[in-house]
Write a structure and sequence with these properties.
By secondary structure, this protein is an alpha/beta fold. 30% of the residues lie in helices and 22% in strands. The strands form 4 sheets. It has an 8-stranded parallel β-sheet with strand order 7-6-5-4-3-2-1-8. A 7-stranded antiparallel β-sheet has the order 9-17-14-15-16-13-10, with no helix packed on it. A two-stranded antiparallel ribbon has the order 11-12. A hairpin with a 2-residue loop joins strand 14 and strand 15. Helix 1 packs across helix 3. The longest helix has 19 residues. 46% of the residues are buried.
Length: 372
């Protein structure tokens, strides 16, 4: 995991947006290590951190992170007392969650910091538009009672990765209307935030004071509109065995691949349990001795096989599964295409038994960042 790339990406967003940067480091910072990444992005200019669950926020607090943290995905029976006591901001999508947060704060004799969350059209988290007025009224009442303080209003765009999509314009106007409705009820949020990575890059989320950047921190561009982002993750494995095989030799379960001629095979100790997607079987490539080589046969739970042609690869030699692409290795984007998925899924699925190597910097063309 390349800290220099994350730092550069965070600094790019901090400098290029029209407001403050919230670094979204949910799911262990997209698999990159939330505590280390938190320190890198805060140093690079982020003023907020964002996570899904309150447990993630509390883990950051336990690690000594004292920056503002927002958690936006919690059930009504979550442990809000711990979150309020740790000064974690909480998104509230319903009267049930708002009431639970208020009661937890009242029992502690504190005022909870909340962000009212509206669903703009995704039918996921967030308050349905028809219930927004009632949620604002309740928030105003609880704020007057002293148990909560509405510090933010948030929403999320459903089609932001498609530049200029008409749904984004519709949802943006819905968000503006929701903010105006809250202010008519004498709520005065300090921060209003709509844009995540894609909406920030396309400009569809411009004009609001806070940008929630997650995937972009790690070099992932859902919109395909930026050339400034640097991939932050490499996956490297070392060969554990190699052999020469004759034409007609089958490889792997089902013998889906049969060698067309005499060739060499190298075995890597990575499989779908480690995040190498089985759906990419028969399509993916890796970098061996500076040259791309195909992975052959079905991917197994613990291993994959590389056809190295006329080269006999020694056990212990490194093979780059993916990386920034500077040295010709496949990128995460290519792997996503081979597997029929998105880059976000691949980087978050790298398994726990894969050793993490954190690098403060990496020379141009370096492919070392994660090893197995």
């Amino acid at each position: 995991m390349h800290h220099d790339a994350i730092r550069a990406n965070a600094a790019h967003f901090a400098a290029s947006t029209d407001g403050r940067l919230m670094a979204v480091i949910k799911a262990d910072a997209f698999g990159h290590g939330h505590e280390r990444v938190a320190r890198v992005v805060l140093d690079a200019g982020a003023s907020w951190l964002g996570v899904a669950s309150s447990e993630e926020a509390l883990a950051l607090r336990a690690g000594g992170i004292d920056a503002p943290i927002l958690s936006w995905l919690n059930a009504p029976d979550a442990d809000f007392s711990a979150a309020v006591a740790a000064d974690v901001d909480l998104a509230v999508p319903s009267a049930a969650v708002l009431g639970a947060v208020s009661r937890a704060a009242a029992q502690l004799g504190r005022r909870a910091r909340v962000h009212l969350h509206i669903d703009l059209g995704m039918a996921r988290e967030g308050c349905p538009r028809e219930g927004w007025s009632a949620l604002c009224e309740l928030a105003r009442e609880l704020q007057l009672q002293g148990s909560v303080r509405v510090v933010g209003i948030m929403g999320h765009l459903s089609c932001a990765e498609i530049p200029g999509h008409p749904q984004s314009r519709l949802e943006r106007q819905r968000f503006v209307n929701a903010v105006l409705a809250a202010r008519r009820r004498r709520l005065s949020p300090n921060v209003v935030h709509l844009a995540a990575t894609a909406a920030t890059l396309t400009g569809d989320g411009a004009g609001f004071g806070l940008h929630r950047i997650g995937a972009g921190l790690f070099g992932i561009d859902p919109s395909g509109s930026s050339t400034a982002l640097r991939p932050a993750l490499s996956l490297v494995a070392r060969v554990v065995a190699s052999r020469e095989v004759e034409a007609g030799t089958g490889v792997g379960y089902g013998l889906d691949h049969v060698a067309a001629a005499r060739t060499n095979l190298a075995l890597l100790p990575l499989g779908y349990a480690d995040g190498v997607p089985r759906a990419a079987s028969g399509r993916a490539e890796v970098l061996v001795r500076g040259r791309r080589r195909p992975l052959v046969g079905r991917f197994s739970m613990d291993m994959v096989v590389v056809d190295t042609g006329g080269e006999r690869i020694r056990p212990g030699e490194p093979v780059t599964v993916f990386g920034p692409g500077d040295a010709g290795e496949p990128t995460v984007a290519e792997w996503a295409g081979w597997a029929g998925t998105i880059e976000h899924e691949l980087v978050t699925r790298v398994g726990a038994r894969v050793a993490r190597v954190h690098r403060a910097d990496a020379p141009a063309g370096s492919s070392l960042g994660r090893t197995a």
